[in-house]
Amino acid sequence: MSGPSVNSFFLGNSSGVNFSIIISPIDEETGKLQLANCSGSKRADDWNLNVTPGTTTSKVTISLSRNLQLCLPNASDCCTTPLCVVETLQVLACCDSVVLAHLLIQAEIYANSSFTGNVSENATIISNQVFQPLGSCPCDLTAGACDVRCCCDPECTPDLKQLFNESCFTGVFGGDVNPPFDQLCSSQSMEYTPDWFPFLCVQSSLNNTPFLGYFYHGSTSTPKAPLFKISLQTSPGKLFTGYRQGDPIMTEENEYFTVPQQSMAGQCVRSAPVGYLQNFDVTCLTDLASYKEGLPHDVRINSGTGDLIQQNVIYRTIADKGKFITESESLHTAEVLCHNVTFAEHYTLIWKDKNIEQINVTVFLGTLCNGEILTQRFTVKFLNLKSTNATELFGNPGYQVGKPVRAANMNASDTFGSLNIWQPAGRGLCTSAAYTPVLFGLDSFSGCTLEVDINEDCSFLRGNVTEKLNSLIQATHVGKRDNARYNNLSDWVEIIRLDPFNSDTNVSNGNFKGICPDIPANLNIRIIFADLGAVQGIPQQEILAVQISYSTVIWQFQCGLTCENSVSFLPITASVQFIQVPAQPPVPMTRFQMNYTEFDCNRNDVCWPQLLYPLTRFYTGEPYSQCLAKGLLLAFLIVLAAMMSNPWFSEVW
User: Where is the Tectonic-1-3 domain (predicted)?
Assistant: First the structure.
């Protein structure tokens, strides 16, 4: 025990049990503790005993009631030495004078080092750092000792200074904390001083030096609560003008409508605002101790015109928790604490133009116990009122970042396709992994593990892995734009597939048991896109080409310490990379730009060809007629100034 209080627990029913504390001295002859009896009380000298009873467990608290401050002169009731308390305690639990349990405590408590006395009148006065340096000897780093080469150190005797007198620190660090600055007239040097220095130098004392004043005394302001709350216009004439893409959705209380989302660092932000027309599908890890409920579902949403919309909530129960519970710790207690929590929330927002027409919420509930880690899922999807199904078309023709990439299977009767990556759950096996769509503009990397037997046939393994990877790409074409129509083949680009390298040699037989080369374990999806204009100031992006390739690895059975296990794991991955290219090929460089790079405006800060840029057609800051008029006026003034500066003009005038 090193603090003024300590807690312990008595297991069992504490009714009829008497708790007592005694100070157990050590027998000087034998060196052993004296035997304790049940005649003690809940107080012994400065020690107090407090018991908080419970049904199966009682909390026992032992606390020290004395002062732990170091003694000041002429003071009492304090600690005379730094090691203030050194005692041996015994806590007894007795029933009918029979000792049921005892606890031995060795207390070694040091005095509190914080100062609580009165401040002496002889306090050190610290000078204002704005007008006078705070430290007169910055190189004095060691208290009570001489710092080598620090000639301003008061602890350095003249004999010690003779050892390094020729190598003392110079400048501010060596004690010259207020040096003359270069603009001072008295610091004029004959070697580097220009001729005009006496006319522009400063006559000032060293107390007014530019080396001082480098201290910012700005006021701090505390953020207003709540964090996500803004003031909206409350005029009866015009409550709200509607949402634009990316605007945060507001609630009835003029606060942000929030749903948990992932930050740029990958962490889960519980109070992240939902942006208009921005779909997302995220997962968040939590346990029972850190679980927090989100925004209540009875909160009404601002539709965009000032009207309030009530959420339509449907509650369902999770039957299979295997896809949500990713880890379960072994608990040793008989009773496990469990609560009914939210496993998933799916929001569907029906929109039209700049307004929200309807909000449908599906909440999945389940039981989360102490020691389990839950993978919560939150999805937000915007559907147009004209087409409230999975194939709805957004108003913007091009793709927007974060929207799913549209895919189609033109070889099937049902042309609807999918372009997905894995979303592992549980142990991360491919058999239990779910799918999540590829989102436009977001590079992603996912994978899962495949169980492989030591006697696995290599050809069968290659086929199994290829089948797993191909299950992600259930499409032959990808939509060029977000509003691509299935009945128009020109709205789609065909997926270019590069088949994996297949080896005809079965290397799993003979001496090569447990080794298989050329396993296509990595699926690479490359999507090339470009900006093709803007609609209402929002850039519109179009997919130009999609390529799918495979990377092969050599799989080898991992034994570990022994090879008793006949099952190993093979990780297979899928990566998505978005590559942006110019909408049109760049203009090739001319021979002049190659040879005379100093005149290239893209390579130099000074661009001589753009000296008269405001007079050219490339300048769009003002109308061309105004630029031309101002340019002619400027040219007239320059010619007039040149004429007036000539001697013959003064003679004529």
Answer: 241-384, 398-581
